């Protein structure tokens, strides 16, 4: 029995080594997790798609791809709410044509989702996307945007900590524009919530978006920072703090409970 166990162990190690050897090496594995939850208007959803497309077509992002040791980035684009949908599956970005092809897919017609907000499940989904792809990156990053705190699924810190335990860095793009249904779920200093409860890992950062006119530029900055892998401090824009505590990692669930109680009482 011991001999059989030893043979099985050797085979497992051999298969694992072979799988690693077959992996495509890249500078970065990057999962773009983009919020399409109920609080987002169709205009906002279009701005996000076009903003990412514009950033990918920029000279700065191309230069960032070229700055890596391997000059190669593997990236996927996923829209999330309570569930997740892969819009652009994993692709290797090396040339301007690669970036243009990725951007072109994002500007095609799409159907908006109407669901709650589960940042935690989005992070777990992103983690699994990295674990199961065919690439081996020098770095792995989940980049998540959203216009509100987590209010569904496991607590956000559990999703965050699961990804961090795998050595994955999480960066955040909190959308603080207060358009559409977002005002009903608004959290002042959403940037602080992201900093305290969502992001993590070496060099992780937050870039808030206060106006949709600034979205494409924020995405461009974010992609460049991720691709060139320079350590940065969390970038937080000052805003007025009100009664809700943005460092309470269960604040989204509490807001949801308050709204449910309000609707029930009516």
Describe this structure in words.
By secondary structure, this protein is α/β, with parallel strands linked by helices. Helices cover 44% and strands 18% of the residues. The chain has nine helices and five strands. A five-stranded mixed beta sheet has the order 3-2-1-4-5, sandwiched between helices. A hairpin with a 3-residue loop joins strand 2 and strand 3. The model is unreliable at 1-19, 233-243 and 259-266 (pLDDT under 50).
Count of individual beta strands? 5
Shape verdict: globular
Radius of gyration: 20 Å
Order of helices and strands: HEHHEEHHEHEHHH
What spatial order of strands do you see in the largest sheet? Answer: 3-2-1-4-5
How much helicity do the residues have? 40-55%
Average pLDDT rating: 80
User: Helices and strands: which structural class?
Assistant: alpha/beta
Q: Poorly predicted ranges (pLDDT <50, ≥5 residues)?
A: 1-19, 233-243, 259-266
Could you outline the blueprint of secondary structure elements for this entry?
Blueprint: H1 2-22, E1 24-35, H2 42-56, H3 59-66, E2 73-80, E3 84-93, H4 96-106, H5 119-132, E4 135-146, H6 156-165, E5 169-174, H7 190-198, H8 215-228, H9 251-265
Parallel strand pairs: 1-2, 1-4, 4-5
Antiparallel strand pairs: 2-3
Features:
266 residues; disordered N terminus
Sum this structure up briefly.
By secondary structure, this protein is an alpha/beta fold. Helix content is 44%, strand content 18%. It has nine helices and five strands; from the N terminus they run αβααββααβαβααα.
């Amino acid at each position: 029995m011991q001999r059989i166990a030893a043979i099985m162990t050797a085979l497992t190690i051999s298969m694992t080594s072979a799988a690693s050897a077959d992996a495509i090496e890249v500078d970065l594995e990057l999962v773009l997790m983009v919020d399409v939850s109920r609080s987002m208007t169709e205009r906002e959803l279009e701005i996000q798609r076009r903003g990412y497309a514009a950033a990918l077509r920029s000279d700065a992002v191309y230069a960032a791809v070229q700055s890596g040791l391997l000059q190669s980035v593997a990236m996927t684009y996923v829209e999330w709410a309570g569930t997740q949908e892969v819009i652009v599956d994993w692709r290797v970005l090396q040339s301007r044509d690669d970036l243009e092809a990725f951007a072109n897919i994002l500007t095609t017609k799409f159907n908006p989702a109407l669901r709650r907000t589960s940042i935690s499940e989005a992070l777990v989904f992103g983690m699994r996307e990295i674990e199961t792809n065919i690439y081996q990156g020098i770095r792995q990053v989940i980049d998540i945007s959203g216009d509100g705190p987590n209010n569904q699924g496991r607590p956000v810190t559990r999703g965050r900590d699961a990804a961090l335990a795998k050595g994955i860095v999480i960066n955040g793009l909190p959308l603080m524009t207060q358009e559409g249904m977002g005002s009903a779920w608004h959290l002042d200093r959403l940037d602080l919530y992201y900093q305290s409860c969502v992001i993590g890992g070496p060099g992780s950062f937050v870039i808030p978006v206060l106006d949709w006119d600034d979205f494409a530029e924020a995405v461009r900055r974010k992609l460049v920072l991720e691709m060139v892998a320079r350590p940065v401090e969390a970038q937080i824009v000052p805003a007025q703090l009100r009664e809700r505590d943005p460092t309470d990692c269960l604040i989204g669930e509490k807001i949801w409970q308050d709204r449910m109680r309000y609707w029930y009482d009516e």
